[in-house]
Amino acid sequence: MKSKASAWRTVILILALLGLAVPCQSARVKDIVSIKGVRNNQLVGYGLVVGLDGTGDGKKARFTIQSMASMLEKMGVTVDSGQIQVSNVAAVMVTATLPPFARAGSRIDALVSSIGDAKSLQGGTLLMTPLKGANGRVYAVAQGPVNTGGFSAGGAGSSVQKNFPTVGRVINGALVEREIDTGFGKRNKLTLALHTPDFTTAYRVAGTINRHFMMPVAKAIDAGTLSVRVPGGYDDNLVGLVAAIEPLEVETDSRAKVVINERTGTVVMGENVRISTIAIAHGNLSIVIKENPDVSQPLPFSKGKTVVTPNTDISVKEGGRQLVVIPRGVSIGDVVRALNALGVSPRDLIAIFQAIKAAGALQADLEVI
Q1: Which CATH number fits domain 183-251: 2.40.128, 2.60.40, 1.10.540, 3.30.70?
Q2: What DSSP string runs through 333-361?
Q3: Mind listing the pLDDT tens digit for each residue in 59-77?
Q4: Is the pTM of this model over 0.90?
């Protein structure tokens, strides 16, 4: 029995040492940086959704009528715009995201949003819509059935609706027509951008990359940018270089911050938040006002008048909280235990944090959202 107990103690000690050796905030380089020039591009276009069951734009949407007349004229059909009924047609804006390295012929999703007074896009079909980038060039063409993922129905007295039927998605409905040349394979260095700029994290990422390749190939330019020189053996294999850098583990760092959402009463604290020794007394003030009108009615068949006398009952109750000393916390657990000792609600905690920050005892940034 003693040998088993000692063996278990040995296993627990080894596990504890292994736990201490693992960084508490380690993350992959892949998850905290992005490569300059490798990013998404936004596309936008104007189109028409047809085939609606009377839920399209009304007569007030003149641009829809003009678009229908223009489209029919391009197809060889001359029609007076005043004779067009657009209850089965809706004008929409079409947006899409062109991913990096997308090739001509690949398909992406397109998001369709009504810009008129259409009631629903359910069951409609998007006609061929060119999608342009910020430079005005067409990079994709969208067309296909619109999937709204909701519905809307109603009568004269009531109606029911699920989600937003005036917004839909054309799944794999945008066909890429033009490629974006990033020149990725011709680079002699890589520029990495941190998602959250921080000098300490940038320095650690550069050191981790240099230790992996056993040569000074990475250098932190500023808090959010790193320059990585292509080492020997990777001149024609930049994909292999990126694949070797992305899984590296780095211990990230960040500024101490307390985020407060006054609408929901949410308080979120980072690991590095510290509070200096301070004394706090927090009491609640409750005021209750009750109105009980006294009504005095005259006797039957008399010429008296009904008299209403207001009777107001006011009660005030104030919490008898005593002064509590919160010691200086050395960890987030100490801070939480000290604040929980006050026994206050999250909304009271918001006011306490604001007061502690005003007193200069909160060693962290206070952000109210």
Answers
A1: 3.30.70
A2: HHHHHHHHTT---HHHHHHHHHHHHHTT-
A3: 778 888 888 888 888 888 8
A4: no
